[in-house]
Design goal:
single chain, 334 residues, alpha+beta, H-NOX domain, Arc Repressor Mutant, subunit A, 2 domains, five-stranded mixed beta sheet, two-stranded antiparallel ribbon, 7 strands
């Protein structure tokens, strides 16, 4: 379980948007309680509550009511939710995708909640910050529903829009972007943040073949266009980075994410003169150094995030990677 932390990849593009309005991204991050490094490094773990504060602070700083929604236009669902998407890609239909997204959202974070409510004409997929996580949810709610809708739309007919979209907050003065993304059936000042999905859409198959699903997991998760040209070592590394902080990261799990038999993946890595263990160790080394430099987590917390059962094993590995013993930022006085 991810707890109330999320990967900093959710902030991708935020620094550029803030600079474009003539403001300093690092200042907004500090105000929200997020390390400035998280705006550039997608692998850091940051507080979900701090991310929600950041979204609201960025919108105020840039004087842009549509800040969160604009960020959602280029955000990649799979890259953000990481291991949850590895699970969701196995759903057989959009209905199963929605149901599993709500049921297993805690694989991504418990800073927010998702609810799936089936109905006679379809169903409703709702999103909300967990209790005490957000003083204001306007920006992050619109961002979240926008990113979720973009993922669902991948599996539907061209031009599909939800029969209804609800928000708990007031409508903005200009609804042009909202209508462009969500369609015409918008409702504000409601009791929930939610998307209605009609029955024909729910019945649609999630994927039309292994090749397409593999292209999605590799292309969307890693946010790259040219999947076929990507070396298998980088494909494995990207999925290990997404899985490692949140879920068991075994070669079997990575093989499933790539749509390959485990033996085939092992053979391809051997041909590339490496192994799954070597790649996982390199990612652990990189993440351990980042957590030590940019967070106040203890050695025990970092060991758990990197999949170490025993602190002693992590301590030995950290000394081997970094050439010195572990020192947290808190102990170092940063």
């Amino acid at each position: 379980m991810a707890g109330a932390l999320v990967r900093s990849i959710i902030l991708s593009g935020a620094a550029e948007k803030i600079r474009a309005c003539g403001r300093q991204p690092a200042a907004v991050a500090r105000k929200a309680g997020i390390p400035a490094a998280a705006l550039q490094d997608p692998d850091l773990l940051v507080s979900g509550r701090a991310v929600m504060r950041f979204f609201e602070a960025a919108a105020r700083t840039c004087r842009n009511r549509k800040w969160g929604l604009e960020l959602a236009l280029d955000a990649r669902f799979a890259a953000i939710v990481g291991p949850l998407w590895v699970l969701l890609r196995n759903a057989r239909s959009v209905r199963e995708l929605c149901r599993d997204m709500a049921r297993h959202y805690d694989l991504y974070t418990n800073a927010a909640l998702m609810i799936w409510e089936p109905g006679v004409r379809g169903g409703v997929l709702g999103w909300s910050p967990a209790s005490g996580q957000a003083e204001s949810e306007v920006q992050v709610a619109e961002f979240a529903l926008g990113v979720i809708l973009n993922e669902i739309r991948l599996h539907g007919p061209p031009g599909w829009t939800p029969p209804a979209v609800w928000f708990r907050h007031d409508a903005p003065d200009d609804l042009h972007l909202h209508r462009r993304l969500f369609g015409p059936h918008l409702h504000f000042n409601g009791t929930t943040n939610a998307l209605e999905i009609d029955e024909p859409m729910l019945q649609r198959p999630l994927h039309d073949g292994v090749a397409r699903s593999r292209a999605l997991v590799l292309g969307v998760l890693r946010q790259q266009e040219d999947v076929a040209a990507t070396p298998v070592t980088l494909q494995v590394e990207s999925i290990v980075r997404a899985l490692l902080p949140f879920a068991p990261c075994t070669i079997a799990n990575v093989s499933r994410a790539l749509g390959l038999p485990t033996r085939t993946l092992q053979a391809r890595l051997k041909a590339a003169d490496t192994s799954f263990r070597a790649i996982k160790d390199a990612v652990r080394s990189d993440l351990a150094g980042k957590y030590a430099r940019h967070s106040e987590m203890s050695a025990t917390q970092i060991a758990g995030l990197l999949g170490y059962v025993e602190l002693a094993s992590f301590s030995r590995a950290f000394r081997r990677w970094q050439g010195e013993g572990f020192r947290s930022r808190k102990r170092a006085g940063h």
